[in-house]
Every structure is written in structure tokens, then in C-alpha cells.
Design goal:
Layout: E1 5-6, E2 19-25, H1 33-47, E3 54-60, H2 66-75, E4 80-83, H3 87-92, E5 97-98, E6 110-114, E7 117-121, H4 124-136, E8 144-148, H5 152-164, E9 168-172, H6 176-189, E10 194-197, E11 211-214, E12 238-241, H7 250-257, E13 262-264, H8 266-285, H9 294-307
Parallel strand pairs: 1-3, 2-3, 2-4, 5-7, 8-9, 8-11, 9-10, 11-12, 12-13
Antiparallel strand pairs: 4-6, 6-7
The structure holds NADPH dihydro-nicotinamide-adenine-dinucleotide phosphate.
NADPH dihydro-nicotinamide-adenine-dinucleotide phosphate binds near residues 175, 242, 269 and 272.
Length: about 300
């Protein structure tokens, strides 16, 4: 399954039959969402032929063209849209409504067609907590979390930590000013949860038993330095790296060598996608009981990554 890369020109006279979904990105070439979602739709169609004409496409869209793309997709009758880098933040101000849970994140990754326009949701946080549970048997509720990073993914993860009721949240980042800005934003939402900016090189700021979540891009390239040296940490409980390509970053390799439970971000990608699909199915059918085949999505995602 190798879905063609579509552009806005393909929307101009869109009259393909069926129910259409899409992911928009810039660049979009490496997204594994299309094979993952189309595998899920094929599986759902085995049980219910209503899904047989559902199709998930990928569109290369420049950020300047995003507003036009969203209008055209709506006019063409698309049921739903996923947004990836750099569209999640731009779309936030461009939709008819943002779900209450997504508002503090300031970014949306899932748009659902409604009569008054696109409604925006953010399923990344669900993806993170579902993957922590499935891959590390870790719950955010009551956890002491060390979050690495201060970009979009870190902000979403921080809001999820608050919404799930962590006991404490420490945030570290390469650029201290960005860390401090995120700490201030998160504290304003935190009510009774302690939110602390820390220096990842200072072990005195890192108590034992921390759940470490890497939300930096450090590790995407093979020669990237690790965002933290686990050797200086007194007994972290587990390490989660949102990066899934490569499958094992230096951080994860070090965790494994030290015997610390560790997982990459593929499960997060799969679960955010599954939750998006659930939103679309519910909007189209009114049914909340349709079980999205998460395992099929994970297998398809693994195969697509292996093929890259
Ligand atoms: P942003 O560009 O918004 O933020 C990047 C963050 O990484 C910043 O905190 C930046 O620090 C830090 N950083 C970048 N390079 C380095 C480096 N060499 N060393 C240390 N820190 C570094 O990116 P996102 O927040 O959107 O994404 C972050 C990561 O999360 C990406 O790897 C992305 O693939 C992954 N991700 C995974 C998802 C999943 O489903 N598994 C979903 C979303 C994201 P500074 O402030 O100093 O610049």
C-alpha cells in the first residue's frame, strides 16, 4: 500500500466516491499514518461493509496554504483530517471549535467534520498515556515525571500530565529560556501539582523513581547527543522516548543497558491515530461502540517503518 502524495490541485475537482480522510503535512512523504489508517479501515470493512469505501489520503500542504486546504477539504466533503508538523498550531485558530481538552495545548492534530465547520481535537495526549500504559505498564496518575523538551510535543505531554493527575512534573530543556516559558505556562494550569524547571546535568534536582519522557528531537539523527545521561540519575523508574524512527535512540539504548524499562514513541503514534479514527467513526455513524483495531494499526505502522 503506497498512497500517492496529493496536493491542493487534486482537490480542485474532487469527485471521488466514498468517505475520505486525510493527513496534511510539510513534508508528508515520510508519514506512516496512511498505511496505518488504511489497514484499520480494511479490517473494519471485514465486519461492516459501510467502511469498504472509506479511504485515508496524504496531502503535501505548505503552511501558507493550510487555511485554503482546510476550506477545500471541507467543501470536497472530507469527513476528517489529521495534522502533522507544522500544521497543528496553525490550525488551532482556523477551526470552528476546539474541544475543551485541546484548548490548553494550543494545538490540534485531529479535525472532525461538523455542520458548522471543522471541530479540532488533540489525540496526542491520549496516545502518550495509552502507550505508557501498554508499553511500560506506567500510569501518569500519581507519577513523578521528568519531561525533556519545551516544544509542541512537550507542551502537549505536560498538559496530559496535569489532566491525568501526576504527583509532580519536572521539566528540562536545552534552552533554559524555553524551559522557563513552558514551566510558567504549565504552572498557570497546574492547580495543586508541583511543576519545577530543572537542569538535567544536576542530579541533586532529580529524585529516584522518575518516569522520564523525552519530548525533544534529540535522537532523530544518529550523532545527536542524549538529552540526559541516565547514569547520573538515581534509579529512574522507566524511560519513554517519543521518537520512533530510529526505533532505538541512544537514550533508549542506555536505558536498556542499565536495565531500566524503556519504550519508543510508536505506540503513541498508533494510539493517537486510533483515537482520531474513533472520533471520525462517531461523527459519521453516531456509534461510540465501534472497536478500532489498534493491533492492526501497530503492525501496519511497523511494516511501513521497516519499508522506509
Ligand atoms: P519542536 O521543534 O517543537 O521542539 C523541539 C524540542 O527539542 C525543543 O525542546 C528543543 O530544544 C529540543 N531539541 C531539539 N534538538 C535538540 C538537541 N540536539 N539536543 C537537545 N534538545 C534538542 O518539536 P516537537 O515538540 O514537535 O517534537 C519533538 C519530538 O517529539 C520529535 O522528535 C517528534 O518526532 C516527537 N513526536 C512524536 C510523536 C509521536 O506520536 N510519537 C508526536 C509528536 C512529536 P530548544 O528549546 O533548546 O530548541
Amino acid at each position: 500500500m503506497n498512497e500517492p502524495v496529493l496536493t491542493l490541485a487534486d482537490l480542485a475537482d474532487w469527485n471521488r466516491p466514498g468517505t475520505h480522510l486525510a493527513v496534511l503535512g510539510h513534508p508528508i512523504k515520510h508519514s506512516i499514518s496512511p498505511p496505518m489508517h488504511n489497514a484499520a479501515l480494511a479490517e473494519l470493512a471485514k465486519e461492516d461493509e459501510a467502511f469498504a469505501d472509506w479511504k485515508y489520503h496524504r496531502f503535501e500542504v505548505h503552511p501558507d496554504d493550510l487555511p485554503k486546504a482546510l476550506e477545500q477539504l471541507f467543501a470536497a466533503g472530507f469527513l476528517g483530517v489529521n495534522l502533522t508538523v507544522p500544521h497543528k498550531i496553525i490550525a488551532f485558530d482556523r477551526v470552528a471549535r476546539v474541544s475543551p481538552a485541546a484548548r490548553p495545548i494550543g494545538a490540534v492534530n485531529t479535525l472532525v467534520r461538523q455542520p458548522d465547520g471543522w471541530h479540532g481535537h488533540n489525540t496526542d495526549g491520549h496516545g502518550l498515556s495509552a502507550s505508557l500504559r501498554e508499553d511500560l505498564e506506567a500510569e501518569l496518575a500519581g507519577a513523578d515525571v521528568l519531561l525533556l523538551g519545551a516544544g509542541g510535543a512537550a507542551r502537549g505531554a505536560a498538559v496530559e500530565c496535569l489532566q491525568r493527575g501526576v504527583r509532580s512534573l519536572r521539566i528540562a530543556n536545552r534552552t533554559a529560556a524555553n524551559r522557563d516559558a513552558l514551566v510558567a505556562q504549565v504552572r498557570a494550569l497546574a492547580e495543586n501539582i508541583s511543576v519545577i524547571g530543572v537542569d538535567p546535568a544536576d542530579s541533586s534536582q532529580l529524585p529516584p523513581g522518575l518516569l522520564v519522557i523525552n519530548a525533544t528531537s534529540a535522537g532523530l539523527k544518529p550523532d545527536d547527543a542524549q538529552p540526559i545521561d541516565l547514569m547520573i540519575m538515581p534509579g529512574p523508574r522507566a524511560v519513554y522516548d517519543m521518537i520512533y524512527n530510529p526505533a532505538e535512540t541512544r537514550l533508549l539504548a542506555q536505558a536498556r543497558s542499565l536495565g531500566i524499562p524503556a519504550a519508543n514513541g510508536l505506540g503513541m503514534l498508533v494510539h493517537q491515530g486510533a483515537r482520531s479514527l474513533q472520533h471520525w467513526i462517531e461523527a459519521a455513524t453516531g456509534r461510540a461502540d465501534v472497536r478500532v483495531p489498534v493491533n492492526v494499526m501497530r503492525t501496519a505502522a511497523e511494516l511501513a517503518l521497516a519499508a522506509h
